[in-house]
């Protein structure tokens, strides 16, 4: 009997922060999240291309990191749940704050924004993660789903 040999890729999971927990910013309100996110946004693109990012948080709402999920066009981008949850699980996050910009400058959420938020909230429950907020950001302002009672 001949045994067939298979080649498979090795998967390694790691997360290597290069700073102390006490040095991580802590989120206590939506404006805290906005201030951190807007520093990481390319202001030159914020009114040109729609981007989706996530803030990863530990149990005490300290920021573990920011992940660029996708970059689209003028009117949309993809928020792939597999990529979002892979990043959250890899960093051992307990909470996630979703964020995307509207190049138009309009802050009101679209039906699609509400639908993806609800879809991600449902998926997060299965993984024992919390979607804490979803921010729509513009150059000078933001809309918080949590502040508006949509979370």
From TrEMBL:
Signal peptide: none
Domain MPN: 26-151
Top-rank lineage group of the source organism: Bacteria
Keywords for this protein: Hydrolase, Metal-binding, Metalloprotease, Protease, Zinc
The UniProt record lists the keyword Metal-binding: yes
UniProt GO MF annotations: metal ion binding; metallopeptidase activity
Any one of the GO BP annotations: proteolysis
InterPro entries: MPN (IPR037518), RadC_JAB (IPR025657), UPF0758 (IPR001405), UPF0758_CS (IPR020891)
Keyword Amino-acid biosynthesis: no
Listed Gene3D superfamilies: Cytidine Deaminase, domain 2 (3.40.140.10)
Protein name: DNA repair protein RadC
């Amino acid at each position: 009997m001949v045994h067939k040999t298979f080649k498979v890729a090795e998967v390694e999971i790691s997360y290597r922060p290069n700073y102390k927990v006490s040095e991580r910013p802590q989120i206590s309100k939506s404006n805290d999240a906005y201030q951190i996110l807007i520093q990481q946004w390319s202001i030159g693109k914020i009114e040109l291309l729609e981007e989706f990012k996530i803030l990863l948080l530990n149990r005490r709402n300290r920021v573990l990191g920011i992940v660029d999920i996708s970059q689209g066009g003028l009117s949309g981008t993809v928020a792939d749940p597999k990529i979002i949850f892979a990043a959250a699980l890899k960093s051992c996050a307990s909470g996630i704050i979703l964020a995307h910009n509207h190049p138009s400058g309009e802050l009101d959420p679209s039906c699609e924004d509400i639908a993806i938020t609800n879809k991600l909230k449902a998926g997060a429950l299965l993984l024992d993660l919390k979607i804490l907020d979803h921010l729509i950001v513009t150059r000078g302002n933001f809309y918080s789903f949590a502040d508006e009672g949509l979370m």
